[in-house]
């Protein structure tokens, strides 16, 4: 180390010591404060009534009592607020003291006098204000001035504040890695930030949890994080380019920037599967923020539809797409999936709604026990008797009122029926008591005598009727008299209707050639009370059009990760569901592994969602996850892959091993896993094509190695050796990846290309593909120099 550098290091360590000392003092003060205020809160709560003087004798005493209570309540509120505030500060400083900052910039604003020293800005995961001097000893990485660190190398630089742009010269940019109070690494950078520190960070072994990237955010990623102008932000980025990482940092940024108006529960992340939720769940707490809500589209669909159907999940659909290629009707199902996820089909459903306003509506009869109170036919007649200019949803409200009235008039006579008397016999004593109480109140009001047997019986009978009609009334209130299942089924059962609707929606050309088979298959499944994944969103959309949209207005920001997995139809639906939200959609078209059209296959429909004016598209080409060798091998597998830039981190070339039979294949895999373990890799994945294959391989290997099977999306992500189907490994990463059988037989069809690419790009340091017989063309078409064959 040069002398100059040694001195700088020493100076910085001295400052680190000072800052840690000061933070320590603040922590001690806060601990005292928290303890004291907690004691006060407990004591006020305990003695609340002792200190309130209660006197209700006359109005002035009443006012005095009220104001004394109010005063006590205000004191309690103020103490509770102080307690919360100090506790938050305390936990922030406790996090900061371990590693107070990771960067420094020296910045001289334009207009500062020549002799003036540049301002030194130290950046950390939270700010630290030294109260006595009034100086910020650490700036929050999200503060406006901190963007200089991410956006510039030394030289002229500028940042934006709410008051405008501030320009100047950055004279120094320094990066640190501080652990337990000691500077472990220190770099001054002239290039763009991160290269050396990033090298170190990316060379580490992976973890079962994603990590924050706050110290090494790259310029392009910073654009994603701080982009706050447009309603829609689309990020199309290569595998491993940091889309998910940037999205989580973005959430932390938004929570900081809008801290007065935005709460964590007003943001929702749509993840590819529940396992992914646990994988990313520690990033925000690590940054000192509460987690946002996390869900999956499937979870939402289940929540809305599972009472009516067995709803197929997307993973069962993928298993079918990749595992049942020879099943009868396979091609029709695939075409059906693509068709039903298109915007053309959405337009057809809209056209269908218009048609239903005039004809073909379907209702359930309103029945009590076996008796039809209002027949489906009568409801339909009534519906079409309303003024056609009234909107469909409003006509449904009118129908509802009419049916509630019909039910009431039925109740008015039904209580006299003989069966009601039998039911009274079955009432328990609580019911009797309740009836008597009511009767007493009524009699008091009407000044009648109580000993009235008939009145008592009438009251009990009416009570019985009311109880028995309650579920029916609830059903009517929820508009369940509209027969949505028949409406959806009718669209496929009556081909002429489908043609008419397609014609009205200008979607005739989009109808697949084999639509008749698709129709039959759809009807067949609905008749078994099953809803295929591709039907779930259209069905729900139709239901909302009939019953009125159930929207969520409290959500202000929706983040859709792995956005390529969503169809245009599904994204449109999400937009309707969250009418007040801004949206961030992050994805990689090359990882689109579903059979439906991806929203990213053309940007047009997704841009149309909020309009070009309100949409920003950012592309990320640099891949950080994998070594240069792995990126150079995998990028050739996908269209446009040549644009993907590897980060300059070297490792061994991907290996391809051919085995003649399955037992040899497995033996080689076992040997390889043992070797990888000796080399110190902590997370190793054996990636299979389907869950079925994963289960079989697990069965074969489990007695020889400690392997975990992850075959269901609801499992948690675990460290160690995992056997996992490719579609569940989406979004996550491993130190070493082995592909179970990358043979020509397994991966050669176009639809398998992206699945294979997704599997290979999960590797950070080591990729090894084992094949049973001839390797897949996705391997052999790569340059021979990009991999090693054995
Ligand atoms: N600026 C950065 N600094 C440090 N690490 C980074 C940075 N950007 C990305 N990484 C790392 O690169 C890896 C890939 O990031 P991430 O999973 O966010 O990428 P992705 O684009 O969502 O990937 P995929 O689409 O393949 O799922 C992670 O280990 C992440 O920590």
UniProtKB/TrEMBL annotation:
A molecular function (GO) term: DNA helicase activity
Binding site for ATP: 237-244
Pfam hit, one: UvrD_C_2
Residue ranges of every copy of the UvrD-like helicase ATP-binding domain listed in the record: 216-627
Entry's EC annotation: 3.6.4.12
Hydrolase found in the keyword field: yes
Stored SUPFAM superfamilies: P-loop containing nucleoside triphosphate hydrolases
Keyword Nucleotide-binding: yes
Alphabetical list of InterPro entries matching this protein: DNA_helicase_UvrD/REP, HelD_bacillota, P-loop_NTPase, UvrD-like_ATP-bd, UvrD-like_helicase_C
Keywords: ATP-binding, Helicase, Hydrolase, Nucleotide-binding
Protein name, as recorded: DNA helicase-2/ATP-dependent DNA helicase PcrA
Taxonomic lineage from the root: Bacteria, Bacillati, Bacillota, Bacilli, Bacillales
């Amino acid at each position: 180390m040069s002398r100059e550098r040694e001195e700088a290091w020493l100076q910085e360590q001295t400052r680190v010591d000072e800052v840690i000392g000061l933070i320590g003092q603040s922590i001690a003060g806060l601990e005292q404060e928290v303890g004291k205020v907690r004691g006060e809160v407990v004591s006020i709560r305990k003695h609340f009534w002792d200190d309130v003087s209660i006197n209700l004798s006359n109005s002035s005493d009443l006012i005095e009592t009220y104001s004394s209570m109010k005063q006590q309540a205000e004191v309690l509120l103020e103490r509770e607020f102080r307690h919360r505030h100090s506790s938050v500060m305390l936990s922030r400083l406790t996090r900061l003291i371990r590693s107070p900052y990771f960067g420094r910039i020296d910045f001289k604003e334009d207009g500062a006098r020549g002799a003036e020293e540049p301002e030194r800005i130290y950046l950390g995961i939270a700010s630290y204000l030294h109260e006595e001097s009034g100086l910020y000893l650490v700036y929050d990485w999200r503060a406006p001035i901190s963007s200089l660190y991410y956006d510039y190398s030394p030289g002229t630089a500028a940042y934006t504040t709410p008051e405008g742009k501030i320009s100047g010269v950055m004279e120094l940019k320094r990066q640190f890695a501080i652990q337990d109070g000691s500077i472990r690494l220190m770099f001054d950078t002239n290039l763009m930030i991160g290269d050396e520190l990033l090298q170190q960070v990316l060379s580490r072994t992976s973890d079962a949890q994603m990590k924050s990237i706050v110290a090494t955010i790259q310029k392009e990623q910073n654009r994603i994080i701080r982009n706050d102008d447009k309603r829609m932000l689309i990020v199309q980025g290569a595998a491993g380019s940091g889309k998910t990482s940037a999205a989580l940092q973005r959430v932390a940024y938004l929570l900081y920037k809008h801290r007065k108006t935005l709460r964590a529960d007003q943001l929702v992340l749509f993840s590819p599967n529940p396992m992914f939720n646990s994988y990313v769940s520690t990033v925000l707490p690590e940054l000192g923020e509460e987690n946002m809500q996390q869900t999956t589209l499937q979870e939402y669909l289940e929540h809305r539809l599972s009472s009516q159907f067995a709803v197929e999940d997307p993973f069962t659909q993928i298993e079918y797409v990749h595992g049942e290629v020879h099943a009868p009707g396979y091609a029709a199902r695939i075409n059906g999936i693509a068709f039903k996820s298109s915007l053309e089909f959405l337009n057809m459903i809209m056209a269908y709604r218009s048609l239903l306003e005039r004809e073909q509506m379907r209702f359930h009869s309103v029945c009590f026990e076996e008796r039809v109170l209002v027949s489906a036919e009568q409801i339909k007649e009534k519906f079409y008797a309303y003024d056609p200019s009234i909107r469909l949803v409003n006509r449904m409200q009118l129908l509802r009122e009419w049916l509630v009235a019909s039910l009431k008039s039925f109740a008015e006579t039904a209580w006299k029926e003989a069966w009601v008397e039998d039911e009274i016999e079955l009432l328990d004593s609580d019911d009797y008591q309740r009836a008597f109480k009511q009767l007493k109140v009524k009699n008091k009001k009407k000044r009648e005598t109580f000993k009235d047997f008939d009145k008592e019986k009438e009251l009990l009978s009416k009570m019985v009727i009311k109880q028995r009609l309650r579920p029916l009334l609830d059903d009517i209130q929820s508009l369940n008299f509209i027969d949505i299942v028949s409406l959806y089924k009718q669209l496929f059962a009556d081909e002429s209707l489908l043609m008419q609707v397609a014609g009205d929606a200008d979607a005739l050309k989009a109808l697949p050639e084999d639509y008749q088979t698709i129709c039959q298959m759809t009807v067949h499944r609905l008749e078994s009370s099953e809803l295929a994944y591709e039907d779930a969103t259209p069905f729900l959309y139709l239901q909302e059009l009939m019953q009125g949209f159930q929207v969520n207005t409290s959500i202000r920001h929706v983040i859709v990760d792995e956005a390529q997995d969503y169809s245009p139809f599904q994204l449109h639906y999400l937009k309707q569901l969250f009418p007040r939200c801004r949206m961030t959609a992050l994805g990689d078209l090359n990882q689109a592994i579903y059979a439906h059209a991806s929203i990213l296959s053309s940007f047009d429909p997704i841009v149309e969602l909020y309009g070009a004016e309100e949409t920003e598209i950012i592309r990320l080409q640099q891949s950080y996850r994998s070594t240069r060798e792995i990126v150079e091998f995998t990028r050739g597998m996908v269209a446009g892959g040549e644009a993907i830039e590897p980060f300059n981190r070297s490792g061994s070339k991907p290996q391809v091993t051919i085995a003649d039979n399955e037992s040899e294949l497995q033996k080689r895999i076992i040997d390889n896993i043992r070797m990888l373990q000796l080399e110190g890799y902590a997370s190793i994945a054996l990636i299979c094509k389907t869950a079925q294959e994963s289960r079989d391989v697990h069965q074969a290997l489990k007695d020889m190695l400690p392997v975990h099977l992850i075959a269901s999306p609801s499992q948690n992500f675990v460290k160690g050796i995992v056997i996992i189907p490719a579609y569940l490994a989406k979004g996550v990463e491993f130190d070493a990846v082995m592909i179970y059988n990358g043979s020509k037989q397994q991966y050669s069809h176009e639809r398998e290309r992206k699945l294979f690419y997704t599997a290979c790009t999960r590797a950070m340091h080591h990729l090894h593909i084992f094949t049973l017989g001839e390797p897949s063309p996705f391997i052999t078409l790569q340059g021979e120099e990009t991999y090693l064959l054995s």
